[in-house]
Amino acid sequence: MVAPPPLLSIADYKSADGDHKPAVEKPHGIVTVHHLGFGNSTATCSCGWEGRRRRLKAAAEQDAWTHSILERCAVACPLVITW
Ligand SMILES: [Zn+2]
To answer: Which is higher by pLDDT, 68 or 8?
Structure first.
């Protein structure tokens, strides 16, 4: 008869990981959308990232949100800045 494996608690998983990263990392950049006129919007971030020029402002906003999710940068409030 084989004994079942011991149950691990959440603390065991954290200690077995080895590195002590915080659960939520702090954002390192602030991403905004620059609305440069009709049909000309670009998402840029203070971390150095820059998105493509978009004809639709909503597409640039999607670029900004995607960058914030993937790179853990914060989104500005308000997101869109008209120049
Ligand atoms: Zn960024």
So the answer is: 68
Structure token digits, residue 39: 């049909």
Asked whether residue 15 is domain-assigned, the answer is: no
Q: Is residue 6 part of a domain?
A: no
CA–CA distance from 58 to each of 10, 22, 43, 53 (Å)? 40, 33, 10, 12
The answer to whether position 3 is within a domain reads no
> How far, in Å, from the CA of 46 to the mean position of ligand 1?
6
Domain that holds residue 64: 27-82
Number of compact structural domains in the chain: 1
- Say how many Å lie between the CA of residue 75 and the centre of ligand 1: 9
pLDDT (tens digit per residue) in 14-45: 545 555 555 566 768 999 999 999 999 999 99
pTM (predicted TM-score): 0.67
Distance 67 CA to ligand 1 centre (A): 6
